[in-house]
Structures are given as C-alpha cells and as structure tokens.
Write a structure and sequence with these properties.
The complex is a heterodimer of chains A (324) and B (314).
Chain A: E1 2-11, E2 18-28, E3 33-37, H1 44-52, E4 61-69, E5 72-73, H2 79-85, E6 90-93, H3 107-118, H4 123-136, H5 142-145, H6 155-167, E7 173-177, H7 185-202, E8 205-210, H8 213-219, E9 222-227, E10 230-236, H9 237-242, H10 247-254, H11 294-298, E11 303-307, E12 310-313
Helix pairs in contact in A: 3-4, 3-6, 4-6
Chain B: H1 2-29, H2 34-39, H3 45-54, H4 61-73, H5 87-122, H6 127-141, H7 144-158, H8 170-173, H9 182-208, H10 211-219, H11 223-253, H12 255-260, H13 266-276, H14 279-307
The chains are: A alpha/beta (324), B mainly alpha (314).
C-alpha cells in the first residue's frame, strides 16, 4: 500500500542541512495499523506531513528518500498533484479538530468539497455523499449537521467531521497525527473505536502517530518507535511490548504508570534528546543510554532484524523480558 | 436582533451626548473670538457688545450649550456666523464633495489594494512580493500633497486630461463633473491603497498558516482554489473594518488634498471654520462626523455578521 524509504527531512540551507527526520523507512500493508510513537519533537509529525506532501512552505524540505503509494512514486507531489496523477487515495487527520475546520463554511460544504475533488459529481450528489460519510463516522443526526458551522460542534464531533472529509477520497491509507490528543478520554475511546472499525470495514491502512504508548497498545498491529528523527525499533505490537529490544523503548515503557506502580515516583529517562544538528557519528541515544559503551559514541549502530519482523537500531540490544 | 438594535441605539445616543459636550467645551476653551474675525480690528466696544449679544455669546456657556442642544434635537444646527446661512446647508454643500471624493477613493483602494495584496501574499517571498510590498511602503510614505501636486503637473498641466482644481456640483453640471474628483481621489487613494494592500497581504499570510488551510490542501484542492475558498474570506474579515475606518477618515480628514485641489469638502470646512471661530459650523460639522463614524461602525459590525457565522449579535 504505502512504502516509505529513507525519508530525510531537513531544515537549513542546501549546503548545511540539519536533518530533523533522518532516513526513516517503513511499510504499510492493506488494512494494517502501524503506530509511530515517540516524544514531542522526535520528528513524527514532520514524517507524516512529508509522506502526505504537506510540508509547510517555506520551511523544512524533503531532502532525500521516496514515498511510494501502491508502487507509484509520489514523493515530491502535493495532494492536488497526486489527485491529478491518479494517486489521491491517501488522506490525513490532524491533532487539533478545533482549528482544522474552516470556521466560516458549513460542515456539509467542507465535506462535499473533498468529495468533488475526488469524484466528478454534481454539487447535490456530493452533498448526499457527505451525508453518507457523516453516517459512516457515526455522527448523530447527520442530515442536520450538514448545515452546521464548526463552532456549533464539540471537539469529538469535529474530529468525526475530519474523518468524514478524509474518507471522501476512499483512502487506502489514512495518516492520523495524534487525532485523539486534544480530546477527552471518553471521546478518545470512541474515536479510536471508530478508526479501528473503519480500518477493518474499508480495508484501509492507518499510520497512527502518537506519544501515548497506551493508545498504541490498544490500536496498532505494528509499532515503530522514533527517537531524534530516526526509527530505533519496529516490531509487532505484542513483540514490542512483551520484549522491547532497544534501550529507549524499554525506558519509555518503564515510564508508563501501571496499576501496581502505586504512589511511587515514576522512573524517567535521564537527560534530553539531542538538539537537531548536534548528532555526531555515533548512536543518537548514546548520551542517555544506561548501557552505553565507548564504541556506541563512535559509530552509528547497525539496523538488525533481531527476530522475525522485529528490527532494532542498536549495537547492543536488550535480550528481552519486561521488568515486573 | 431587535434587542441588539435597541442596545446599539442606546449606546449611540450616550456617545453622541458625550461627544457634543466635549465638542462644545473644547471650542470655547480655544482662545480667539468670532466677533473680531467678523468686525476686524477697528470695531468699537459698543459694536462688539451688540454683536456678542445678538449671537448669544454673552450668556454663560452652560446656557449656550443647553440652548444649542435644544435646537439640535429639533433638527436645527443653527446659523453660521461667517456664511450667514443655516449650518445644515453649509454642511450639505461640503458633504456632497466629501462623500463623492471618499467613495471614489475607496473604489480605487478596493480595486488596487485588495487584489495586489492578494497577489503579493500568494507570491510570498518572491521578487514580485518584495517589489509590490516595497512599492506599497513607498506609496504609504509619500505625503498626499506631493502626490497631488505631481498628478496635477502631469495629468492636468501637461496632458490636460483632467481639471486641476475646484469641483462644480454634479447637480448643476451633471455626472461629467466627477472628472474633477479623479486626480484628488487618486492622490488620496495612494497611501490608503498601500495600507490596505499591506493589510490584505499580512492577513492572508496569517490565515494561510491556519490548520484549516492545511486541511483544505490535504483534500487535494488546487492551490488557487484553496486561496479563493479558504483563505480569502477569512482574510477579508480584518480588511473590512479597515475599509470602514478609512472611509470615515476620508470623509472628514482629507483637508490637505482638499486644499491642494481647492475642493469645497468637509475637511477644509472644519479647518476654515476653526480659523474663523465659526462656532455653530464647527459644532455642527463635528457632530455630523461623529454620527458618520458611529454609523460606519454599525455597518462594519453588521457586515461581520454576514461574513463570519461565529459572530452573534447580542
């Protein structure tokens, strides 16, 4: 469906680029949900915008790598150029449903507009399709909501509208960039359930970006952990949570509160991620890694497939087992 | 809607009352005396006293205010000391020029400022944007009298396409007299179009960074459709209020341009009346200007309601 190879996004000049996403690769099969997890600033949003062809201009640019949609190269194409080239079946929803809809236009117009881009139908047909889409995202009273303005809807309803807009192109791939971060926990559960349902019903692949390990555990089939612009570990969700191999992934899991953690202080990963452009030749996690060795600081670690479908970017990976 | 209108009318009345007190007080604080302007240096004390009594200027200021206000409420703004004519007709003469001049100027501003601002925003960061923005900065910085004088020199003196000064009423000479207003309106439009251009550009750039514009691009809409359907309307919200205030300012403050082109407008009427200490005219004109500002404010607010569904009138 979607294949991303060595994606590199850079800031700064042509001659002295600063890579904020450095050689990210992943693939996404039909109906699969890949979780992309990492802390703020690790480059996960930039990765998603680059894949979607939506990098802000002027700003970061896609310096190297390829984005293949069903085998077709769409790397440097913006969404409208993809539609024109016949590769428009990829859509995206965003973190902020409150600001992601145009405040002065009706919901129905905004969905119908997306329908008409992808299907050359009349305005009336597009509007009735918009109603169907609102039904698909389980919007209460869809016919009424067509003529509502965004400010008349709640955050959860707006995110449903965003999903309806995304579905207008009958996507094979949906990129969801922290779609539930701005929502209440109860609404979050509903939206996640909806995404899961749509994924299996429409056989749509989802690239789900979040910093919330709990959400990933519920939703994803596979997980990629991102740190300082690189994917440091990729595995099936059970394999990753059951047996993390990268010291960073392990650190993240130790930071998660659990029922038995009680009133005890949660552990943290000491230090700060390196600022973009300050990464030298060695491993990006070397400065914070508990198991760092001298050789880690000198040479970048190899990417190794340590078990079936489990890749790790570490010279001395953990050999498994989760702390109690 | 009706309760909004009532509230609005209430605040308008209070504003007008406050404005009238301030106008009256300030005029009488300013040194100078209309009697000397009318009679000259050679008048005898008896003549002065007689005229002062005749005009009611010998009474306490409170009494003068109350009597003036009473007449205003009856629709009578009094008689001009200098013109010896009703203030209302003096203002009406100036208003014709000012309204036509301001309207023509706003048309230039709209057809020059908004589209060029749009182009600069769409071509943001290119040499075209820098050229247009630079030109706008230049236009905003050049004084209108300088632009006015050069327009007269080129289009009136050398080319002879337009008259250089004065304005005979359209009610006497027909619409063809509007040609007298072409050069002054262009002179006035230069700095105002430049400001609207810069505002349109800045506002469009602000809006183009909004999340919903990214959503629109993600839908696969073509770039210029994104501008037309998603950026423009939101960007114009900021421009609309600037239009209102620019228009109000043009009606009352175009003194310099009116002077350069010898136009009988409101701006010049105010300045000359102040020099002549023609109290009734000053009071009347300023009161009318206040009313115009309030009205334009109201129109701007109502137009927001049309442009932005989030605005509820309360």
């Amino acid at each position: 469906m979607l294949s991303v190879r060595d994606l590199t996004v850079s800031l700064g000049s042509e001659t002295a680029p600063v890579d904020i996403v450095a050689g990210v690769s992943f693939g996404l099969g039909k109906g699969e949900i890949l979780g992309l997890v990492g802390e703020s600033g690790c480059g996960k949003s930039m990765t998603s915008l680059a894949v979607m062809g939506l990098l802000p201009q002027p700003g970061p640019r896609l310096r190297a790598g390829k984005v293949l949609l069903e085998g077709c190269d769409v790397t440097q194409l913006q969404p409208w150029q993809r539609v024109e080239a016949g590769h428009g079946r990829i859509a995206m929803i965003f973190q902020e449903p409150m600001t992601s809809l145009n405040p002065v236009r009706r919901i129905g117009d905004q969905i119908a507009e997306a329908v008409r881009v992808h299907e050359g139908v009349s305005a009336a047909a597009a509007l009735s399709r918009a109603r169907e889409l609102l039904e698909m995202v389980r919007m209460p009273d869809p016919a009424m909501q067509l003529s509502a303005y965004p400010h008349q809807l709640s955050g959860g309803q707006r995110q449903r509208v965003m999903i309806a807009i995304a579905l207008a192109c009958r996507p094979q791939v949906l990129i969801a960039d922290e779609p539930t971060t701005a929502l209440d926990v109860t609404i979050q559960v509903q939206i996640l359930g909806l995404l899961r349902e749509l994924c299996s019903r429409l056989e749509m692949a989802i690239l789900f970006i979040t910093h919330d390990m709990g959400v990933i555990a519920q939703l994803a089939d596979r997980v990629s952990v991102m740190y300082a612009g690189r994917i440091v570990e990729t595995a099936g969700v059970e394999s990753l949570f059951g047996r993390p191999r990268h010291h960073y992934t392990r650190g993240l899991m130790d930071c998660m509160p659990s029922r038995n953690s009680g009133a005890r202080r949660l552990p943290t990963i000491a230090g700060q991620p390196p600022a973009p452009g300050t990464v030298g030749a060695g491993c990006v996690f070397a400065s914070r890694c508990a198991a760092v060795r001298e050789s880690c600081r000198l040479a970048a670690p190899p990417r190794t497939e340590i078990a079936q479908g489990h890749e790790v970017l570490c010279a001395f990976p953990l050999d498994g087992g989760v702390a109690p | 809607m009706w309760s909004y209108a009532l509230k609005r009318a209430g605040t308008t009345a209070v504003t007008l009352l406050a404005a009238s007190v301030i106008i009256f007080a300030f005029i009488h604080v300013v040194p100078g005396d209309p009697i000397y302007v009318l009679l000259g240096d050679t008048a005898t004390p008896d003549q002065i006293d007689a005229l002062r009594h005749q005009l009611g200027l010998d009474q306490p200021i409170i009494v003068q205010y109350v009597s003036w206000m009473g007449h205003v409420l009856e629709g009578d703004l009094g008689r001009s000391i200098f013109f010896q004519a009703p203030v209302l007709s003096v203002i009406a003469d100036g208003a014709e020029t000012s309204i036509l001049l301001a309207t023509m100027t706003m048309i230039w501003v709209a057809i020059i400022g908004v589209p060029i601002g749009m182009i600069a925003a769409v071509r943001h960061g290119t040499w075209l944007d820098q050229g247009l923005s630079g030109a706008a900065m230049l236009m905003a910085s050049i004084p209108t009298f300088w632009v006015g004088l050069y327009l007269i020199l080129i289009f009136a003196a050398w080319l002879g396409w337009f008259p250089s000064s004065g304005y005979p009423s359209v009610f006497e000479g027909g619409a063809v007299n509007l040609r007298y207003l072409v050069l002054p309106s262009l002179a006035l439009a230069a700095p105002n179009a430049a400001l609207i251009l810069r505002l349109t550009r800045a506002s469009m750039l602000d809006v183009s960074r909004e999340d919903y514009v990214r959503t629109a691009r993600a839908k696969g809409i073509r770039p210029w459709q994104v501008v037309r359907r998603h950026i423009l309307r939101n960007a114009l919200l900021a421009v609309v209020s600037a239009f209102g205030f620019t228009f109000a300012a043009l009606l009352s403050e175009a003194v310099v341009t009116e002077t350069v082109f010898a136009l009988p407008g409101i701006g010049r009427l105010v300045v000359q009346s102040i020099l002549r200490r023609d109290y009734p005219v000053i009071q009347g004109v300023i009161l009318v200007i206040v009313v115009v500002y309030l009205l334009i404010n109201l129109i701007v607010d109502l137009s927001y309601r049309l442009l932005d569904p989030r605005v509820e009138l309360q």
